[in-house]
C-alpha cells in the first residue's frame, strides 16, 4: 500500500475524519513507534514505487523533531538528502499510520547515519479492522485445546489471533461436535509462556481441502478475556506484526 492508494493527497475531504492534528497525540504516536521499534516504510522524492525501511530512534519534543535511522536499501539515503522530504507509512496497533516529514539535517553519531526530521503537523490513522489479527510464526506454532460442555477435548492448530478471537484448523473428522454459537473452554500458551484460559464462542465453520488433507476451519470470538491475558495477547500481536513487516522487507 502506498500514499496514492490511501488517497491522502487527492483533496478528498473525508480524509479529515482520520487526521490527527493534536500535537501531544502526534508526539505520543511517534514515541510509541520509537519504543516499539516499529519498522517504517519510507518513500522519498516523488517516487511512490520504491520503498525504503527505517525506524525512529528517538523523539525530541523540545526541538520539535525526531531521529530516523539510515534507510535500507542504502540508495535511499542520498535521495532523502536531496529531496529533503519523506512520506512515511507504518502500522501502529493495527492501524495504518501515515504522515509527511521534512528533513532538517543529516548527521553521523555513534549509531551511524541518522536523519533529523521535523515532527509532522498531522498524522493520518485508519483502523482497518476492529481487531487486527496476525498468524503465528511457522517456527513457533501455537496449539489450542478446546473442551466441550460434555468434557470432550478437541486440539487444533492456531491460524490467526487477535484480542477479539482466533482462527483454528482441525482435522476433518471433527465437526459434529461443534456448532455456531457454541461456547467452549479454550486454552493455549503464548511463546513467552503466558497461559491463556478463556471461553470461545464458535462463529464460523468452514470445510477446506489442503495438500495435507481435509480440514475444518473454525473462527471463534473470546467471550471474556481477563485484562492481563488481553495485554499478553496484544503484546504478542504487536510483536508478530513487527516480525511480519520486517520479513516482508527482506
List the helices and strands and how they pair.
Elements lengths: L2 H4 L12 E2 L2 H14 L3 E5 L7 E3 L1 E5 L4 E5 L5 H9 L1 E8 L2 E15 L2 E7 L4 E5 L15 E5 L5 E9 L3 E7 L11 E7 L5 E16 L2 E10 L4 H22 L2
Antiparallel strand pairs: 1-9, 2-3, 2-6, 4-5, 5-8, 6-7, 7-8, 7-9, 10-11, 10-13, 11-12, 12-15, 13-14, 14-15
CATH architecture of the largest domain: Roll
What does the overall shape look like? elongated
Rg calc = 22 Å
The CATH homologous superfamily of the largest domain is termed Electron Transport, Fmn-binding Protein, Chain A
Number of H- or I-type helical stretches: 4
Indicate the CATH topology of the largest domain: Pnp Oxidase, Chain A
H-E string: HEHEEEEHEEEEEEEEEEH
Structural class determined from secondary elements: alpha+beta
CATH class of the largest domain, named Mainly Beta
Low-confidence stretches: 9-14
Q: Strand-residue fraction?
A: 35-45%
Mean pLDDT: 84
Largest sheet: 9 strands, antiparallel
Number of domains: 2
Percent in helix: 10-25%
Distance between the termini: 17 Å
* Total beta strands: 15
Fold and architecture overview:
With 250 residues, the chain is of the alpha+beta class. The protein folds into 2 domains: 3-127, Roll (Pnp Oxidase, Chain A), CATH 2.30.110.10; 143-248, Beta Barrel (Thrombin, subunit H). It has 4 helices and 15 strands. The chain has helices at residues 3-6, 23-36, 75-83, 227-248; strands at residues 19-20, 40-44, 52-54, 56-60, 65-69, 85-92, 95-109, 112-118, 123-127, 143-147, 153-161, 165-171, 183-189, 195-210, 213-222. Strands 1, 2, 3, 4, 5, 6, 7, 8 and 9 form a 9-stranded antiparallel β-sheet that branches. The protein has a 6-stranded antiparallel β-barrel with strand order 10-11-12-15-14-13. A hairpin with a 5-residue loop joins strand 13 and strand 14. The longest helix is centred in the last third of the chain and has 22 residues, at 227-248. The radius of gyration is 22 Å and the shape is elongated. The chain starts with a helix and ends with a helix. Mean pLDDT is 84; it is low at 9-14. It comes from Thermithiobacillus plumbiphilus. Pfam families: PilZ (PF07238), PilZN (PF07317). Keywords: Bacterial flagellum, c-di-GMP, Cell projection, Cilium, Flagellum, Nucleotide-binding. This is Flagellar regulator YcgR PilZN domain-containing protein. Residues 18-124 form the Type III secretion system flagellar brake protein YcgR PilZN domain.
Amino acid at each position: 500500500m502506498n500514499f496514492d492508494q490511501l488517497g491522502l493527497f487527492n483533496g478528498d475531504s473525508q480524509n479529515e475524519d482520520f487526521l490527527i492534528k493534536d500535537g501531544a497525540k502526534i508526539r505520543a504516536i511517534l514515541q510509541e513507534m520509537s519504543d516499539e521499534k516499529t519498522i517504517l516504510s519510507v518513500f522519498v522524492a516523488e517516487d511512490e514505487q520504491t520503498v525504503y525501511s527505517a525506524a525512529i530512534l528517538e523523539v525530541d519534543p523540545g526541538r520539535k523533531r525526531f531521529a530516523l535511522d539510515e534507510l535500507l536499501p542504502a540508495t535511499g539515503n542520498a535521495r532523502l538528502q536531496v529531496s529533503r522530504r519523506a512520506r512515511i507509512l507504518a502500522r501502529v496497533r493495527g492501524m495504518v499510520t501515515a504522515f509527511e516529514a521534512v528533513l532538517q539535517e543529516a548527521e553521523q553519531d555513534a549509531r551511524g547515519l541518522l536523519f533529523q526530521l521535523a515532527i509532522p503537523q498531522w498524522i493520518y490513522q485508519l483502523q482497518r479492522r476492529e481487531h487486527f489479527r496476525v498468524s503465528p510464526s511457522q517456527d513457533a506454532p501455537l496449539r489450542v485445546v478446546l473442551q466441550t460442555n460434555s468434557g470432550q477435548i478437541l486440539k487444533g492448530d492456531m491460524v490467526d489471533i487477535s484480542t477479539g478471537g482466533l482462527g483454528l484448523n482441525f482435522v476433518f473428522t471433527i465437526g459434529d461436535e461443534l456448532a455456531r454459537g457454541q461456547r467452549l473452554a479454550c486454552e493455549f500458551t503464548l511463546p513467552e509462556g503466558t497461559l491463556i484460559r478463556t471461553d470461545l464462542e464458535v462463529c464460523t465453520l468452514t470445510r477446506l481441502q489442503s495438500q495435507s488433507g481435509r480440514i475444518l476451519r473454525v473462527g471463534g470470538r473470546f467471550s471474556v478475556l481477563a485484562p492481563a491475558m488481553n495485554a499478553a495477547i496484544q503484546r504478542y500481536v504487536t510483536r508478530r506484526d513487527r516480525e511480519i513487516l520486517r520479513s516482508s522487507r527482506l
